[in-house]
Amino acid sequence: MLAMPVLMVGVVNRTKSLWAGRKGPRLLQFAWDLQRLMHKRPVYSVVSTPLFIAGSWVVLSASLLAAVIAPIFGDVSPLQFERDFIVFAYTLGLARIFLMLSAMDVGSAFEGMGAAREASFTAFIEPALFLLIGSAGVATGHTSFAGLLGHLHASALFPVLAAPVVLVLFVLLQAEASRVPVDDPLTHLELTMVHEVMILDHSGPELAAMQFASAVKMTTYAGLIAAVVNPFEIAGSPVLGVLSSILLMVGVAVAIGCVESLTARLPLRHVPRYLMLASLVALTCLGATAWMAGVRN
Q1: CA–CA separation, 186 and 225 (whole Å)
Q2: What is the pTM of this model?
Q3: How many CB atoms lie within 10 A of CB 9?
Q4: What is the pLDDT of residue 190?
């Protein structure tokens, strides 16, 4: 889990470079960037409090905890219990809250603007996640996150659910990890910045923690997509299951790079509509699953 985010970022950047006709950075360049930031002395605002320093590490810790709960290898996860998907969702919510608090702690209206945008986008992505989990629950009958996604491919409703589940998870990945078209991690246009404006005052180790946390969230959702489509179960074929999950996650990274190379970032007023579309797809998926399950019974 600590190495995969570095590889994911490297694959995304290399894919974008290939589309642009450039050689691009090394696959592990992100690790060297993090190491460089860890050796830099941070600079703090004169009005910031200890909350600003703690915020970045809470964001990283919460992101890692969510990654441990997520069943990125299918029907098993390191931390698994009944209804753990609720803890997963609100652990990411905790990370988001501290990201916004650390942004507002520096007393900048500019960063407060980014925090307000982040809060508004959150209202659109959380329903999509829970509606998606509800669909998987109806289809599989399981109550743990690993059971919901890991056994989804064995359900009779999997042919109907596979495409919309992957689509919604991909949109959630773009929102949580601040990727195009929801956000652009490389933008410097003040009027459209969301995630980047909230970490403008971070530097050194705190900036490294924020960047790694974003990569962890991207890897987590890529792992969820891999868990849905992975045909091998870890319990039956552990080697094939792990290798297949890793290859599928790399494939998701390639897809992210292609999307970011071929599409532009959405205008800010269209982002809520894009996220609401994911919730609408998840709601339709839940309704169709419940109807088909009722017909079968």
Answers
A1: 25
A2: 0.95
A3: 28
A4: 66
Half-sphere exposure of 276 (CA within 13 A, CB side): 6
Is 111 in contact with 45 (CB distance < 8 Å)?
A: no
* % of the chain residues with pLDDT over 70: 97
Concatenate the DSSP letters of all residues of 68-84 into one string: HHS-TTSS--SS--TTH
User: For residue 83, is it left (φ>0), alpha (ψ between -120 and 50) or beta?
Assistant: left
Task: Give me 227's structure tokens.
Answer: 């868990």
Mean pLDDT, the chain, integer: 91
DSSP the chain: --SHHHHHHHHHHHHHHHHTT-----TTHHHHHHHHHHTSPP---TT--HHHHHHHHHHHHHHHHHHHHS-TTSS--SS--TTHHHHHHHHHHHHHHHHHHHHHTT--HHHHHHHHHHHHHHHHHHHHHHHHHHHHHHHH---SHHHHHHTGGGSTTHHHHHHHHHHHHHHHHHHHTT-TTT--TT---GGG-SHHHHTTT--HHHHHHHHHHHHHHHHHHHHHHHHHH--S-TTT-HHHHHHHHHHHHHHHHHHHHHHHHHSPPPPGGGHHHHHHHHHHHHHHHHHHHHHHHHHH-
Q: Is the pLDDT of residue 278 over 70?
A: yes
| CB hemisphere CA count around 32 (13 angstroms) | 6
- pLDDT for 108 equals 86
- Residue 116 has phi, psi (to 5 degrees) of -65, -40
Tell me the per-residue pLDDT of 224-234, one tens digit each, with 9 for 90 and over. 999 999 888 87
Which sign does the torsion angle of CA 286, 288, 289, 293 carry?
Answer: positive
